[in-house]
Amino acid sequence: MADEAKKRVFSGIQPTGKITLGNYLGAIRNWLPLQQQYDCLFCVVDLHSLTVAQVPAELRKNTLDLVALYIACGIDPAKSNLFIQSHVHEHTELAWILDTVAYVGELNRMTQFKDKSRRHADNINMGLMNYPVLMASDILLYQTDLVPVGKDQVQHVELTRDLAERFNARYSDTFVVPQCLVSKAGSSIKSLQDPSAKMSKSDPNENAVITLSDDADAIRRKLRRAVTDSDSGPNCVRHGEDKAAVSNLLNIYTLCAGVSIDEAERKFEGKGYGVFKDAVADAVISVVQPIQAEQKRLLADKAYLECVLRQGAENATHIAQKTLSKVYRKVGLIPKIR
Ligand code: TYM
Predict the structure, then answer these.
(1) Quick one: which of 49, 146, 130 has its CA closest to 97?
(2) Are residues 102 and 161 in the same domain?
(3) What CATH number is given to the structural domain containing 235?
(4) Is residue 235 part of a domain?
(5) Residue 148: CB within 6 Å of ligand 1?
(6) Do 148 and 221 reside in the same domain of the chain?
(7) Residue nearest to atom 27 of ligand 1 (CA)
């Protein structure tokens, strides 16, 4: 499948809890067109999930659900490599080597580490701090050119670039230095209850988050309860810096309905928030429902999913082994005697 002339794309999502509309609009949706042009690897990053406490049976279920969701959203296993991170053990091996060029100070400064340490004060484990190094390993192992992510992951991709450049400077050219690909729209979908915070899987307020497993009633209810801004009047549905909550809903609407912000603003001129929120709900439901139906169908076909995962891991391992043995050689490890 790999074509040497094509640029390579890598991205992943943690199978932690329920996948949100933010994950879809900020990540998966943007991966789809890349499949036509690039050599893509899309990974379910199960090892990353272990940095916060998991119920093992739930983690297994969430992992398979996410594999099926990737395909249901339009990731085509005939075009892209789809695999589970823990199936390619080179990820953790490279992470160890990268640990030796990563500084404690820079990991300590990562925004997400600080946030998660605050939220999981009783479980600030080494994995939580090391998390961006494992992410760097995911990316560098495949000599990735482009990493499509939402805004909240940009800092981690920048760290990845720093680690690649540092390693290359110390041991000679080894890694491709990847670039971050952040879409203009959708890269930062906000909480429905607090537009200053991102929509997050781990938000304890379920009204703040639309998940891809929500049914139509839940989606409509959550959107009706979404906070708006204090003004009302004929032009209340508009995009603007002073309209964070409505701008977020407009972003969601335009991405799901496939219209521009201008078109949407015109459509809702003279209409109130109630009409607008119902239209947002209709647009979201029309995107989510077919995905749910296809995910359900795929989950009933375990043999197919296993076949995809077997092939995906095999292809990924082939690339990963090449990079890892190059890295081992560069740092001075003796190759295994065969
Ligand atoms: P994770 O699982 O938190 O999120 C997966 C992807 O969804 C994007 N995202 C959002 N985009 C827009 N609005 C939101 N509210 C929103 N919430 C999440 C994230 O930016 C991300 O692109 N560390 C990563 C997973 C990872 C990874 C990698 C990504 C591990 N290794 C290598 C890229 C390359 C994470 O926890 O994402």
Answers:
(1) 130
(2) yes
(3) 1.10.240.10
(4) yes
(5) no
(6) no
(7) 12
**Of these residues, 198, 222, 243, 277, which one is catalytic?**
198
Residue 116 falls in the annotated catalytic set: yes
pLDDT in tens, 90-100: 999 999 999 99
Give the pLDDT mean for 29-53.
97
Answer whether 198 contacts ligand 1 (Cβ < 6 A): yes
pLDDT band with cut points at 50, 70 and 90 for residue 206? very high
**Ligand 1 pocket member 11 (CB < 6 A):** yes
Is there a single domain that holds both residue 136 and residue 257? no
Cα–Cα dist 330/338, whole Å: 19
Per-residue model confidence (pLDDT) at position 4: 58
Q: Is the CB of 228 within 6 Å of ligand 1?
A: no
Residue of 18, 79, 151, 201 with catalytic role: 201
pLDDT, tens digit (0-9, with 9 covering 90-100), for 207-250? 999 999 999 999 999 999 999 987 777 789 999 988 999 999 99
Q: How many domains does the chain have?
A: 2
Domain extent for 231: 206-296
Ligand 1 centroid, distance to 11 Cα (angstroms): 8
Q: Are 308 and 71 in contact (CB under 8 A)?
A: yes
